[in-house]
Amino acid sequence: MRAVKLLWVAPITLFGALLATMIRVSGGRFERQGTAWEASGGCARRVLWLINPWMQIEAITLGHVILARDATTASRMRSHEQVHVRQYERWGVLFPAAYLIASAAAALRGECPYRGNVFEREAFALDGRVNSGQNVRRD
């Protein structure tokens, strides 16, 4: 079953691994954390800006790879991002589209596209923190 989960999300994980390698080569760190690989520091801030220049991203999950601005952010956001790893394992390559649809649905309901997104609500609930709005965007 583990192999199926890995293959189901492999194209996105490979893209995340490419970005993580850039972060590592630029002086950042790249290490195993739980069921994912985590990259932070180095050029991570720039990579996250390139993913979405309109919104400050502190961390993002791409399959089985988590990218974070720095080691402190990675540590603080780890449990939240691990929830997204499990969501990727359920949704596979369909997760990015499902995430965007969930954001659009939240906006249509008059909610914040990030805070109202069902995937984010699940991540906040399962990582044990209250949806307090303490960060601009987690992913």
Model regions low in confidence, pLDDT < 50 over at least 5 residues: 130-138
Structure annotation, total helices: 6
> Which range does the strand content fall in?
5-15%
N-to-C span? 27 Å
What's the main sheet like?
Answer: 4 strands, mixed
As a whole number of angstroms, the C-alpha radius of gyration is: 14 Å
The string of secondary-structure elements, in order, is HHEEHEEHHH
Percent helix = 40-55%
Number of domains: 1
What is the overall silhouette? globular
- Name the average pLDDT: 91
Q: Give the neighbour order of strands across the main sheet.
A: 1-2-4-3
Structural class: alpha+beta
Q: How many distinct beta strands?
A: 4
Descriptive notes:
The chain has helices at residues 2-8, 10-25, 44-51, 71-91, 95-108, 118-126; strands at residues 29-33, 36-40, 59-62, 65-68. By secondary structure, it is of the alpha+beta class. The chain has one domain (2-126). Strands 1-2-4-3 form a 4-stranded mixed β-sheet, sandwiched between helices. A hairpin with a 2-residue loop joins β3 (59-62) and β4. The longest helix has 21 residues, at 71-91. The protein is globular. 33% of the residues are buried. The model is unreliable at 130-138 (pLDDT under 50).
Which helices and strands occur, and which strands form pairs?
Layout: H1 2-8, H2 10-25, E1 29-33, E2 36-40, H3 44-51, E3 59-62, E4 65-68, H4 71-91, H5 95-108, H6 118-126
Parallel strand pairs: 2-4
Antiparallel strand pairs: 1-2, 3-4
Helix pairs in contact: 4-6
Relevant terms:
139 residues, alpha+beta, 6 helices, 54% helix, 13% strand
